[in-house]
Specification:
By secondary structure, the protein is mostly helical. 75% of the residues lie in helices and 1% in strands. The chain has helices at residues 2-20, 26-34, 38-66, 72-88, 93-105, 110-139, 146-178, 184-199, 206-231, 239-253, 265-277, 282-310; strands spanning 68-69, 324-325.
């Protein structure tokens, strides 16, 4: 019941705000969706789902460096199931469920696995900020609007904070922890987590990890670009750089922990960017946001629920290929 409420309340609020405050024409919105190009929508769906095997391959590489050889299909399936949880529960709890599923199906260290998931999120945040800055400068060559400057400032602050946090963890994390009045078990768990964070990457892997991460976020931007193309609004000229900027800003908003997958918050953010920054009419902006989120959230709920129903991993029935423990690579 609480899950249903957490999904329903922001949706109802969105509808009320859209009808009353934003003056959205619902009839035009529905007509635009019905008239959309089905092939382009299918292409948006396919491009978006191409990101899951890319994410699975990246996580499998991080896990292998941290000491566990996991197959890409298994890693991809676990990630997909964890995204279902992210779409149903707030605060990115799917990341915890992902580590739990791997532990349930194989003899891995839960803390070390959390370290690899954390490192994956670090790569994603760096990519979002870098791509967001680049696409923003391309989109607004004649001058950055104040709202965009604020987004850039937040992005730079996030990168600086992440870099400082990683340096602190690497050089002082354990020393700080042992000085605190904490049980020895906490220090042991931290050691495994830190090992998962720093053993999961090697310098020579960084170009490959950067390339795969870039491809992952390109699928996010391409999805939005194809959605805009499918709807065919004559007055909407977002371009690929604009699609990157809006899609990446929306992805940042999913981290707001109040609703599952940022439902209500992300749609409002996309609507605001499209109307305020890109000058898209309210009804068209709402249509783009809703169709894009139907692909990125609603389809996950539907297909993820089917996958969850048939997946043996939720019962701990094991992996397609056994997980092989290896020595973490320094």
């Amino acid at each position: 019941p609480r899950t249903i409420v957490s999904l329903a309340v922001p949706i109802v609020l969105l509808v009320l705000i859209g009808r009353v405050a934003a003056n959205i024409d619902v009839d035009r919105l529905v007509a635009a969706i019905v008239a959309a190009n089905g092939l382009l929508l299918l292409a948006a769906f396919a491009v978006y789902y191409l990101g899951f095997p890319l994410r699975g391959g990246r996580w499998a590489l991080l896990l292998r460096r941290a000491g566990n050889r996991v197959g890409v299909p298994d890693a991809t399936e676990i990630i997909f199931l964890s995204w279902l949880v992210n779409c149903l529960l707030p605060a990115k709890l799917g990341d915890i469920y992902r580590a739990y599923l791997l532990k349930l199906n194989s003899p891995v260290s839960l803390s070390r696995t959390f370290g690899t998931v954390f490192m994956e999120r670090v790569f994603d945040l760096f990519a979002i900020v870098v791509f967001g800055l680049a696409s923003g400068f391309v989109s607004f060559r004649t001058g950055l609007p104040g709202a965009v400057q604020a987004v850039f400032a937040v992005g730079v602050a996030v990168v600086v904070a992440l870099a400082a946090g990683l340096l602190t963890m690497r050089n002082f994390g354990r020393r700080i922890l042992v000085r605190l009045p904490l049980p020895g078990k906490v220090t042991e768990l931290y050691d495994r987590f830190e090992e998962g964070v720093f053993a999961s990457i090697r310098r020579r892997d960084l170009p490959l990890l950067g390339l795969v991460t870039g491809l992952i976020w390109t699928t996010e931007a391409a999805r939005l670009y194809l959605v805009v193309a499918a709807l065919g609004f004559p007055d909407v000229h977002l371009g690929m750089s604009g699609a990157f900027f809006v899609a990446l800003a929306g992805s940042l908003l999913t981290a707001v922990p109040f609703t599952p997958a940022g439902i209500g918050i992300v749609e409002a953010g996309l609507f605001g960017l499209l109307t305020v920054v890109y000058g898209v009419a309210p009804t068209e902006a709402a249509t783009i946001a809703l169709v894009d989120r139907a692909i990125s959230v609603l389809s996950i709920i539907i297909l993820g629920s089917l996958a969850y129903a048939v997946s043996p991993k939720r019962r701990g029935a094991g992996m397609r290929t056994p997980v092989e423990a290896i020595e973490p690579t320094a």
